[in-house]
Fold this protein.
Amino acid sequence: MKSLCRGFARLTVCLLAVAGLLSCSGPVVTAVGDSNELVIIHDQGSAALAELVVDTMEARCSWLLGEPAFKTTLTTLERSGDLKNLRHVLLVGTMDGGAVGKMARKLFPDLRDDAPPTFSVTDDVWAKRQVVGAVVGADSEAAAAFLREHGDRVRTDMEAAALARLATSLRETAVRAGMAQAMFERFGWSVSPPTGYDFFTTDSGDGFVFFRRTRPDRTVFVYWTDGDAGFVSEQFALAKRDELGARYLDGDAIEWKRPVEADRIDFLGRPAIRVSAWWSNRTLVGGGPFRCYCFHDPSSERVYVVDVSLFAPGFDKTALMRNLDGIAHTFATGE
């Protein structure tokens, strides 16, 4: 009996050691939740600061007809439980002894007690494929002042981090499957949609392919032509989107009665025009949001239009469009 007990004790020690090694190698669960879900973890007793964060992160998107950028859930570290395994987490607290401030110090060692408030972001803290941001200040007043002044940037940076993490996951899957390399060899570029998308090609000289998935209907297309950076303009992007929709997408056209937002951005290291708007189809009686990126790629001496669109009546659009935008951000011209 003593020998059996000693053997069990040794086995227990070994199991604990293995568990410790696994925990040191990073999270073992994969993050869950929709692309627009955000858990906000705040210190107990900081209700006013928490409400300010909710208002900041739930700002309404005019392009998506007033849908919020994120749907938020408020909690504290002590009560967070499995919520910490969601895809997006935002820590908001202070450096003056709060639990969130202590956690932020562990995640971001460069944070100092006397530093001005800041926004930091990392990934894969409690779960794989997770984005974790932190807004911390010396005290609640400092953190609140920072959010009032820089809240828009915090929200857009959190959205950008979410897109980048999603695109990385999609691209890694496509590379492992060999899909990305096969696409590059055929077209000179690749994108990485998840499983479930059908792939359609046109005549080889058209410079147009698209991917489509149903229930709800989602479309990703890539158009390319020889050209230089002079092609890249709001006018070219809008005209080309209408032309391609009419020719290949059953007559889809830009819906000018809804918001049309065009801005200049950096798209994967390239200057680009981004158009966020709605399409409509009078014949098929449908419509929905789309987002397209128009840019020049110096390595291939081509101009590209990468477009994602949605037809999902009755669905919230933010999460679905963010997933589609993540696919657009897998674009690459070499593997």
Notes: The two ends are 60 Å apart (CA to CA). Confidence is low (pLDDT under 50) at residues 1-23.
